[in-house]
Amino acid sequence: MTFDYDLFVIGGGSGGVRAARIAASEHGARVGLAEESRMGGTCVIRGCVPKKLMIFASQAEAHAAEARGYGWQTAGAGAFDWTMFRHKLDAELTRLEGAYTGGLAAANVDIHKQRARLADAHTVELADGQRLTAKHILIAAGGRPALPGIEGEELGLISDDLFLLEDLPGRVLVVGGGFIACEFATILQGLGCQTTLSYRGDAVLRGFDGEMRRHATEQLRMIGVDLRLESNPVRLAAEGEARRVDFADGSSEVFDAVIFATGRAPYTKGLGLEQAGVKLGRKGEIVVDEWSQSSVPSIYAVGDVTDRVNLTPVAIREGHSFADTVFGAKPRKVDHGLVASAVYTRPHELATVGLTEEEAAARGPALIYVASFRPMRSLFAGSDARAAMKLIVDAETDRVLGCHIFGPEAGEMIQMVAIPMGMGATKADFDAAIAVHPTLAEELVTMRKPTRRIGDDNSDKADASA
Ligand code: FAD
């Protein structure tokens, strides 16, 4: 049977664009790609890129305060022009969108600017009714914000909306405690909005190292976010342009905007997956094997739609590996085991790679090294903000199992730590490195004495997993 394409990709985000480009340009495949929205996907248009630029924008007042601490006679950062920033942001996203589209065109990928769905194991149907066949189909449709399922939730905003606001809200409620909620609260507070964060747990960033979660929680308070822990909004109602929010404890409050950052779900609805026989998991994610192949042999899936590790570099790696494996005769699996990541809160970011202390304790004996200190730069300017670094080391093998950094530019540091950890570095290897002084990162190679030992109750598990 002859097909229109060797590969058809549904979704022009991080994973789909990489897979299409590599399959076409490096392995000579005939590739078509459908994108129903703007090319580049979540990361470029409504995620990593715009949010990081907003983080930068939101720091001006803090930088001015620090400058005063160094002797500069400045009253503050001045007034923030949201309209100017938004226009500039949109121009930047358009530039990036153009670069993604241009890269695909240069690789001779056919771009279909419309929605696509599966018709069968080798056929996609476009929104205009056109049917195209392909030997392989890659689903890279990403995820979508998930709402909490409360009355009036349609009156709230989702993360996509932050980047499209006409005006900044005066009083804003962010609901959620994950990385997006924490970053959004940091941004909005920094841009001058009176920001409240409501989260049902007792510390933000569930799943991260417990000690680091406490630092991140405390920092939100320190920068002026009105943090409501163990708090649950149960109902939203319109009051003119504003929103009245009723909470589970019986209290009620009015905000100019409510932003739900209450998780994300794979975007598989209406894709025709079940009819084509593709197996889905509990959250609607496409179930794939280590080669990103679904239960239907001609259909693969990468990125957030598979709900493995929902980060851009992971989607890119999965897309690249898929293209090399299927079209380049270079079989490559993705190791999801040691993925570094960062939460871009300010003044300190939280960055992490490997096991948390809680995970290590459940695994077996480990030594915990912690350095907690006030960084020289902010201390001099008069800030009490504390940074913290933690290494988790296997008590028997000396191997570094986890690293957690809460400090300025922690994301930049963890990238470098991920390399030796991926190579199996021991604490002795870290100690062998001579420090770069004066830096924050030198703490990572100068922690001499363990702060505590954990996991002795679970020594048999460490033996089993060694
Ligand atoms: P996506 O990038 O979501 O791309 C999917 C694309 O498919 C979309 O463009 C969509 O329009 C299109 N599509 C869907 N269905 C169809 C269809 N039927 N037909 C045609 N087109 C379709 N990750 C990080 O690593 N670092 C960060 O700092 C970070 N920050 C984030 C901040 C926010 C606010 C959010 C929401 C996410 C963030 N992420 C971050 C996560 C990151 O954006 C995602 O993990 C990544 O974009 C996943 O890539 P993907 O290719 O799976 O899907």
List the defining traits of the structure above.
binds flavin-adenine dinucleotide; FAD/NAD(P)-binding domain; Enolase-like, domain 1; seven-stranded mixed β-sheet; 23 strands; 466 residues; six-stranded antiparallel β-sheet; alpha/beta
List the helices and strands and how they pair.
Elements: E1 5-10, H1 14-26, E2 31-34, H2 41-46, H3 48-57, H4 60-69, H5 82-106, E3 110-112, E4 116-120, E5 123-126, E6 131-139, E7 143-145, E8 157-158, H6 159-162, E9 171-175, H7 179-190, E10 194-199, H8 210-222, E11 226-229, E12 233-239, E13 242-247, E14 252-255, E15 257-260, E16 264-266, H9 273-276, E17 299-301, H10 312-327, E18 341-343, E19 349-354, H11 357-363, E20 366-373, H12 376-380, E21 387-394, E22 400-407, H13 410-422, H14 427-432, E23 452-454, H15 459-465
Helix pairs in contact: 1-5, 1-10, 3-7
Bound molecules: flavin-adenine dinucleotide.
